[in-house]
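Letters spell out the chain; backbone shape is given numerically. Both lines appear below:
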Amino acid sequence: MKDARSGRIILLAHCLLNQNSVVMGLAKRKGPVEELLQLVLREGIGIVQLPCPETGYYGLRRFWAVREQFDNPGFRNYCEKLASEIRDLVREYIRNGYDVIGVIGISGSPSCGVTESGSSENWIGPPYEAKEYNKVKKSGIFIEELRKKLGDLKFEEWDWREVEDSLSKIENLMKKD
């Protein structure tokens, strides 16, 4: 049976569709990232909103964090469980002939960074003494666990410092081969 569906799916980091889940003080939009949402809607691609591992594990009243804080057995196990559920959903789409385009993460996120994540290097101590964090060329913890489960799926990231470049990269990812 044919209908209007495109048969194309993209997986988006939770906060791209819901900035209300971001650590207090860091949201860049009121709700979704409109320009990204407009691109996906224009292309007629279905959206799977990834869970936010930080909100699920630490809640909304959390402080900002860095990769080293999340790189612990408890958080990794939680992310691995979420990644397994996403893998099963992706397999179901693929089994039924859908084109799963890829995953869009967030540049610099300690959970959802694709090519870089925030790092404290070796700093530990009271949060009020925290210095600026640096970016390291490592994926965030959730993205690492997703990559283990999703194999060949393509990953791209949204970079708030380069909005137009991010849109261009994601649009290129969406182009049919």
